[in-house]
Amino acid sequence: MAKAGWTQRVARAASVMISSYVAKTLCVARFAHAFLGPNGSAIARRAFVERAHQAEPLQLYYLDCGAGLSLLEAHLEKYRFLRGTEVPSADDLVAREKVEAAGHNLEKYPFPRVRDWIERLRQTDATTTASGEVAVEFLEHSPVNLDYIKQLRSQEEQEFKYHVYAKRVTESFDEDALPMDLPLETRCARFTIEPGVFEKLPGLHVVTALVLNAPNLDAEGWIKGHFDSVCKMVAGKKLEAKRGRLDVWKRYTSELKDRGSDNLFLTKGARREPTKGKSFSVNPLVDFYNTLSVKHVVTGGGFDLEAMPGDLRLRLSKKGDSFLALDSQGGRPVEVEPGEVNYIAEGADTETTGNVVTRHLAYKQSRLGLIQEGSKHVFLMFEMPPDLVDDVAPELIQDLRRLPGLYSEGHGASVHIQRADPEPSSLKLVVLQLRKETARDCA
């Protein structure tokens, strides 16, 4: 009897549910007939059925090929489009855009329904049929992949963490005496590294070269030929011998910008055509310091002393510093974030040219102080962590001194070597203070 009673109760409950469904359907039909005309019942019935088959909300992890596209594939197994409708919605358009932008190789992985869905969208005039707000929840990664990525980044941070060089740098040399009677018009009388830089780049050493009377001309192409030979030397397997230096640079510069960016400020040999055995050319003096940068796997740069508005400082940026990139298409300088390791030109107009001449040590340069065709008095600098000084500096200095003999136009040039490091971090370029009417006493 108990079992029979239970069966009767279930039957009565089912009857009530069916009656309620029928009543709602009839109510909707009567309402539709009254307000939508004779065909209103059919319209309302289709809307009711469509709502009953509406697709469940979808979470799309659009950067995950496995987890993300697997969920999308399963969803499209049930529905033609994401909302369960016969025409595309705003969800479909945004989802397709994100999936395609992620660059997933849909031919390689088994997601046939995703491929068919994208093809249907291409064949449909989606721009006119899609409307409404986006209901899909778009997330870059699934929770599982997000945890994996966090673990991977944590491991990378440990791997690329720079351990301060414990050994003492032994390389030393006598600094060159600077000529006292050169009639050079410039306002740049001193190069200084401020203490805050050494907190981000402990033990930083900068080998500098004051290059005087070096015409930026090379009619016979000797400097370019030298650059070509160096690029061929470091290409292919021969570059592998220098990978240790690249690894040092990756760890050493990890504090300069957020990790996760592949745009590390390494030597150009790590980022450009030299790794393929090909050189690139700007002008002879720029080609010269790029050659040494590639050869010795250190960052290198330079400025035209006659174009500098004041002293040169390597310091942490502060509020009010601004930068106008060399490749910018006009416009005004942008203010940089405080705490960047930047080369600063004192006395520059922050509103028109910007006072930051190079950002992030050796990442991007402005037009201010640029070495150009008419340049002949330049200041070159090559930065390196203490780990590389003993191995790199002696040969680098020899190569710098060879500049006058590298090309015919340089026979009257002179190269004066100095070094800035945590001890003598300020170099007074007394040679540059001779024209009192143009030079400023910055001592």
UniProtKB/TrEMBL annotation:
Pfam families noted in UniProt: B3_4 (PF03483)
GO molecular function terms noted in the UniProt entry: phenylalanine-tRNA ligase activity; RNA binding
Cross-referenced InterPro entries: B3/B4_tRNA-bd (IPR005146), Glutathione-S-Trfase_C_sf (IPR036282), Phe-tRNA_synthase-like_B3/B4 (IPR020825)
Stretches assigned to the B3/B4 tRNA-binding domain: 276-329
Protein's name in the database: B3/B4 tRNA-binding domain-containing protein
